[in-house]
Specification:
Oligomer: single chain
Mean pLDDT: 81
Number of strands: 7
Distance between the termini: 25 Å
Strand content: 35-45%
Low-confidence stretches: 1-8
Largest sheet: 4 strands, antiparallel
Structural class: mainly beta
Number of domains: 1
Number of helices: 2
Order of helices and strands: HHEEEEEEE
């Protein structure tokens, strides 16, 4: 994909106001995203990169002798240029929030 075309279609204002609550670390070395995953166990969550998009999905099922129940969600966000897609990390915190950290390759783009 042409780099200029990708940059032109990315809207930083929409990105910063998304439900992923994106923030940059003070030294601009990482992008941090957080997703409310309360009610899901870590093994019920998947975090994937698909092209320029980050996809977070959760799926859980429970059943008893009389009732079967399932719940799921899927959220995605287009990521900006200048990120290190090979070193994405994620962690579910005790409060149920999923934190995703993505190192920035070219941090000067976000100053």
């Amino acid at each position: 994909m042409d780099h200029r075309q990708h940059s032109a279609s990315f809207n930083i204002a929409d990105f910063l106001q998304s439900k992923f609550h994106p923030t940059f670390t003070p030294n601009r070395k990482k992008l941090t995203l957080k997703v409310d995953t309360r009610g899901y166990q870590p093994e019920e969550l998947t975090v994937r990169l698909l092209d320029d998009n980050l996809l977070v999905q959760g799926k859980k099922a429970s059943s008893s002798s009389k009732i079967s129940d399932s719940k799921q969600f899927s959220q995605s966000i287009r990521l900006p240029d200048g990120i290190d897609k090979c070193n994405v990390t994620s962690q579910v915190m005790d409060d149920g929030m999923l934190f995703i950290e993505i190192p920035l390759i070219n941090s000067s783009m976000y100053r």
